[in-house]
Design brief:
about 240 residues; alpha+beta; 6-stranded mixed sheet; 6 strands; about 45% helix; transmembrane helix; Thioredoxin-like_fold; DsbA family protein; oxidoreductase; transmembrane
Amino acid sequence: MSSKNKYNPQPESSRSTYILGGLAVLVIAALVIGGVIWQNNRSKPRNEGYGGVQNSEVQVSIQDNGVVLLGRTDAATTIDLFEDPMCPYCAELENKNGQELAKAIDDGKVAVRYHILNFLNQLSASGDYSTRAVAASQCVAETGDASAYSDFHAALFAPENQPAENGDSDHSNEELAQMARDAGASDDAAQCITTGAKVDQAAIDAEAGRQALRATGATGTPAVVEDGTVIDALSDENWVSQL
């Protein structure tokens, strides 16, 4: 048989395979990179750099059942925000919208009733971290320093501060007190936290908050409620501007 009658594999077939394979890799890489960019943009803080509330007209006070009200007296609307200091989704919400919400509070567009709960106590290393964080929040609010409360609230949910669920450690009262000092809270607030003066009452208030959450129809935390309507704040990144 002459050599010209033999089958000679054509290099074009292999070249096409490599080209198609390379295109597939590029498509996958683009999807992965696009997904990473989308996720980063999704979690990027809105109004980044603003910080906590700054307007001297903003007031903070403790209402019935330990609810902390933060806002101007002439706020256009008031929302209820239910959170647990151990809740990672609450931290996600605070990281994404906290500074945007602070600006809206400063501008008088909204006031916030913070209901801090403790149903994730059992997932903390100490077994009572959420309750102690509720108490610390009340200690700071009791001083009437709105700016310090706003900054302390943000600090509780900051990635570098929030204890991991089922983690090996959380924060002692002394560490919570230092966190409050760093947020600008007074020595009286720090002492209140260190001594655990409000812990027993905080447990009672947190249970009342749990019952209030259940009454809204929300299924968990974080929950944002305006005029009895639950807002899907985690899915709708524009919820603050739409209040």
